[in-house]
Amino acid sequence: LNHTRFILVFLFISWSLNAQVALPTFHGVQKSYPSVLIIWDDSATNTHTVALKTALGNAGFNVTMSNTSETSYDGTNPALSNFNAVIHLNGTTHSAEMPNAGQTALVNFVNTQGGIYFHSEWLAYQAGQSKYSTMSELILLQRSGGGEGNLTYTEVSAQSSHRILENIPSSFSFNSGYNVGTAKSFGSNPVTVLMTHSSNDAVVIRSYGNGKIMAMNNAGNYASKTTLSNANIQQLYINAIEWAN
Fold first, then answer.
1. Quick check: helix, strand or coil at residue 128?
2. Is residue 171 part of a domain?
3. Which residue range forms the structural domain that includes residue 71?
């Protein structure tokens, strides 16, 4: 009887302990995907701008189109506080300049917030016309001329292992408007050239404050070109966003 009583007490205590001690529950770590803003030029529905947006979305990014063209972007439409990357297009709107408030917001986005900012052409052209002086630290290319037609991007051999060039052919060609010129010189945080087009610097990066900048010498939607639908151009954007985040 005593033996039976001992077993019953032991089982009761064991049951009580198991009932009171909660086993730990493990949850998978949620991956945070970068949020990207595309500040468009001619239209938010441009076929090739939409193709870029789709490619970024397929890569897992949260992509938003600006509420207005880059020529009316003032830093509030939308605000940049919830974004990790900004792609600024101005291939078709180079006759006008972004409002100063928008330029200031982009500088703060990179310098203070730590985001990555992308520009292409014709920003170097406009800078040469004494425009965009507020964001001169973000404009990485200088202009000696321009062109339109077939161009070939070739990786700089010393940068072949750079994260941004992952899954990018060592050389690829496409048709676009383009800047003729080289990277700008800065007193600090110099520009790194990743790819060239002939004797021109084509894909360049720079750190500035807490953030980063990448520039390409192609002119995106200029003259109805298909540049932004090019898979390699899209991959350069994707790689750079992942590199910066």
1. helix
2. yes
3. 33-244
What tens digit of pLDDT does each residue of 90-144 get? 999 999 999 999 999 999 999 999 999 999 999 999 999 999 999 999 999 999 9
Contact (Cβ atoms closer than 8 angstroms) between residue 242 and residue 233:
no
Give the C-alpha separation, 15 to 11, whole Å.
Answer: 6
Nearest to 137 by CA among 178, 101, 189: 189
Prediction pTM value: 0.88
Q: Alpha carbon 214 to chain centroid distance?
A: 8
Instruction: Tally the C-alpha atoms within 13 A of residue 153's C-alpha that lie toward its C-beta.
Output: 26
Cα dist from 29 to 22, 26, 32, 150, whole Å: 21, 9, 9, 45
Cα dihedral 193, 227, 110, 59, rounded to 10, equals -100
Q: Distance from CA of residue 30 to its chain's centroid?
A: 22
Q: How far apart are CA 181 and CA 199, in angstroms?
A: 8
How many structural domains is the chain composed of? 1
Q: Side chain identity at 134, as an amino acid letter?
A: T
> Which CATH number fits the domain that encloses residue 111?
3.40.50.880
